[in-house]
């Protein structure tokens, strides 16, 4: 039985990060950052490659442990959780991997059904099929249910990966570079999908990206990460009106005028 009970207060943040530090050998990756994600909100963490974005998301999901600082997810402090408790918490978090992480030997139906059948017992075959069809329709790929990943485009694989995270109806979505490797048209479709899913599933999302267009389109707030620290947190216009040379160079780097 899943004994995890997330806090239900509407005004409580779903993720709270305080003074978070992480280093590898002599390389400091996260240098005392603070961040909150509120219920129903999308926050984009922007930064260039190697800035610590993916390290942050892996700490939040419990795949890495921080050196110092606290991370609270749905009211639970990660470092205080035992393995069983952490696994229960993860059922409320959808993690969309950068490379989609689909099983090549499974078709779309099998890929999406896998986490459902592993974590929710006593479902009939019809119930499983209905749930898979529901999330496939939500990502616009209802007709691909029995296709193999090798027969899908990169954008379609991204959508299937997102559908697989939605099958357990998570409260939090973590997107790791959702538009990486996609052409501009497909990237725009993924951005629109993220917004639609925020409304349809009432999720709170942390979007890790180096893509300014993705951040501007999908997020309520932006946190710009540079050399292990947040340079600024706020809405898009507030962040990029800054005269900070690092912020200006990141804007120019993305070629958006």
Provide a descriptive summary of the structure in words.
The termini are far apart. The chain has nine helices and ten strands. A six-stranded mixed beta sheet has the order 6-7-8-3-9-10, sandwiched between helices. It has a four-stranded antiparallel beta sheet with strand order 2-1-4-5, with helices on one face. It has 257 residues and is of the alpha/beta class. The N terminus is likely disordered. Strand 1 and strand 2 form a beta hairpin.
List the main descriptive attributes of the protein structure presented here.
four-stranded antiparallel β-sheet, 2 domains, Rossmann fold, about 35% helix, about 260 residues, globular, alpha/beta, six-stranded mixed β-sheet
């Amino acid at each position: 039985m899943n004994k995890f009970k997330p806090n239900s207060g509407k005004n409580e943040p779903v993720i709270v990060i305080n003074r978070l530090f992480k280093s590898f050998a002599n390389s400091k990756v996260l240098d005392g950052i603070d961040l909150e994600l509120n219920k129903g909100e999308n926050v984009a963490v922007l930064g260039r490659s190697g800035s610590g974005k993916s390290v942050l998301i892996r700490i939040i999901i419990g795949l890495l442990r921080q050196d110092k600082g606290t991370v609270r997810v749905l009211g639970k402090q990660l470092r205080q959780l035992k393995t069983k408790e952490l696994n229960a918490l993860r059922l409320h978090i959808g993690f969309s991997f950068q490379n989609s992480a689909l099983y090549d030997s499974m078709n779309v139906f099998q890929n999406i059904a896998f986490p459902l059948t592993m974590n929710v017992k006593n479902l009939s075959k019809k119930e499983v099929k209905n749930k898979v069809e529901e999330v496939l329709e939500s990502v616009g790929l209802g007709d691909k249910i029995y296709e193999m990943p090798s027969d899908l485009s990169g954008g379609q694989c991204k959508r299937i990966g997102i559908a697989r995270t939605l099958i357990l109806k998570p409260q939090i979505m973590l997107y790791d570079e959702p538009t990486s490797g996609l052409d501009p048209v497909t990237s725009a479709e993924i951005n629109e999908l993220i917004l639609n899913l925020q409304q349809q599933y009432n999720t709170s999302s942390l979007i890790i990206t180096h893509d300014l267009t993705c951040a501007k389109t999908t997020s309520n707030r932006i946190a710009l990460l540079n050399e292990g620290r947040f340079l600024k947190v706020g809405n898009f216009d507030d962040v990029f009106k800054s005269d900070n040379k690092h912020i200006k160079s990141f804007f120019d780097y993305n070629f958006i005028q």
